[in-house]
Amino acid sequence: MSKPEVSNADGTLFVVSTPIGNLEDISLRAIDVLKRVDHIAAEDTRHSRRLLQHHGIHTPMLALHEHNERQALAGILAMLTEGRSVALISDAGTPLISDPGFPLVRACREQGIAVSPVPGPSALIAALSVSGLPVDAFCFHGFLPRTSGARKTRLAALKPAGITQVFFESSHRILYALQDMQEVLGSEREVCVARELTKQYEEVLQGKLGEVLATVAGDPRHQRGEFVIVVAPASTATTEVLTPEAQRILGLLLEELPVKQAAALTAKITGEKKNRLYQFALGKS
Ligand code: SAM
């Protein structure tokens, strides 16, 4: 059966975002592209079948997951080179964001094959948008390490960061991750724990780490499902320890100099720690 053409789609890889829970959270264009491409490369074909059926999409699927990614790549590149169009989807949200797809997109870019986004949901952006924490700048880390030691080392390195930090977390580790965060970042740090977004048991807990941890630890129901943890910048705490004079000088220098130089010069003038000034500047500049 011949397919209607997606305009300018010959040999294009479409990177298509799909819902993170609610099956209706998919764009009209995403449905159209998924219907019209020659193949859909899916992380888990059985999982995605439900979404495709729900929207009346009958395009053939092939599997592209982290265990076969390198092998599947050659076949998909051959299809694209022959002029066929492929849509890449993952189980939920935006492909490549803690999901398979990077080697494929990279290879397409290297070989001059067109790659086009069909944007839509991502748990990362959905959580940030409701967190009530600063989103003007943020750093996304994917999943924290599985072991407590490695997790704490990673968290310690992020402790002074002057911008919001975002992590994915699973039901198995949410409690341990929050406990380690409290130990390393302190119970006063503001966080948002976004659970099961767009699903039946959606829940967004926001407050001081100590309070949020107490809520999550207090009832196993708060530990079920999928989580995004958003951690507030350290800048509020840093503001308290930077003298007003250091803040004033840093502010003046930032008007003229790049962050690194402004922090270094302020450190020389005031005797404050360069790194602390740098982190403060990142949160403010
Ligand atoms: N690529 C996906 C995206 O853009 O949202 C993320 C894939 S990653 C393998 C899965 C993780 O995303 C989950 O473990 C959880 O941390 C987060 N996540 C996915 N759906 C979620 C939801 N509905 N609510 C909260 N977190 C979610």
Structure description:
The protein is of the alpha/beta class. The protein has 3 domains: 9-121, Tetrapyrrole methylase, N-terminal domain (Cobalt-precorrin-4 Transmethylase, domain 1, 3-Layer(aba) Sandwich), CATH 3.40.1010; 124-231, Methyltransferase, Cobalt-precorrin-4 Transmethylase, Domain 2; 244-284. It contains 12 helices and 10 strands. Strands 3-2-4-1-5 form a 5-stranded parallel sheet, with helices on both faces. The chain has a 5-stranded mixed sheet with strand order 6-7-10-8-9. The chain is globular, with a radius of gyration of 23 Å. Bound molecules: S-adenosylmethionine. Residues 20-21, 90, 92-94, 97-99, 122-124, 168-170, 194-199, 226-228 line the site of S-adenosylmethionine (SAM). S-adenosylmethionine binds at residues 20-21, 90, 92-94, 97-99, 122-124, 168-170, 194-199, 226-228.
The Cα radius of gyration reads 23 Å
CATH class of the largest domain: Alpha Beta
Report, as a whole number of angstroms, the end-to-end distance: 57 Å
Low-confidence stretches: 1-5
Q: Strand content of the residues, in percent?
A: 15-25%
Number of domains: 3
Structural class: alpha/beta
Main sheet makeup: 5 strands, parallel
- In N-to-C order, the SSE pattern is EHEHEHEHEHEHEHEEHEHHHH
Query: What's the CATH architecture name of the largest domain?
Result: 3-Layer(aba) Sandwich
What is the typical, i.e. mean, pLDDT?
Answer: 92
Number of helices: 12
Bound molecules: S-adenosylmethionine
